[in-house]
Write a structure and sequence with these properties.
two-stranded antiparallel ribbon; alpha+beta
């Protein structure tokens, strides 16, 4: 089972898998400490982000951020509260339509479908990204997997991605 393999790679032990309650994994103390530290830093960052977001909105600005679509922090109670407070909406452009390609040997230049999850209070930004979906198998018959070697560059933000953001804000 995939979960047991991943847990084993982390040096963890899967104690139980319950389809209703999730997965119970016994983490080694070093990983447990690291996880707690990451959670502490996230709480601090989110608290400060919300403070800043309130100032930005008070002054007529927009709130925007991007995390991977599969990021578990989208479900965090602090994140959900932020999304609700600022009436933030999502757009999910596909990386392949924005020029994201593999850099590693063997698949270099192949499009990567990596779907971005962009949270924004800016209608123009959301609408600008909404049209960027994979053009389909006629144009992209094969997608490379998005792997570590391809995500080292800052978020895989292409020039087109950056241009869309800047044009949305008339920068």
């Amino acid at each position: 089972m995939q979960v047991r393999r991943i847990a084993g790679a982390l040096g963890a032990e899967v104690r139980a898998i319950d389809l209703n309650d999730g997965i119970d994994i016994a983490l080694p103390n070093t990983l447990r400490h690291l996880l707690k530290e990451h959670q502490r830093v996230f709480r601090l960052l989110m608290t400060n982000f919300v403070r800043l977001a309130r100032v930005v909105k008070r002054n007529g600005g927009e709130i925007n951020f991007e995390w991977p679509k599969i990021c578990t922090l989208w479900q965090d109670v602090r994140t959900r509260a932020l999304l609700k407070e600022f009436k933030i909406e999502f757009c999910y452009p596909d990386g392949c339509s924005l020029g994201v390609v593999a850099e590693r040997r063997g698949e270099k230049g192949q499009p990567i479908r990596k779907t971005f999850a962009i949270a924004t209070s800016c209608k123009i930004l959301r609408e600008s990204f909404d049209e960027f979906k994979c053009p389909g198998v006629g144009v992209h018959p094969h997608h490379a997997r998005c792997e570590k070697g391809d995500t080292v560059k800052p978020g895989n933000y292409t020039q087109l991605f950056c241009d869309i953001v800047h044009n949305s804000f008339n920068l």
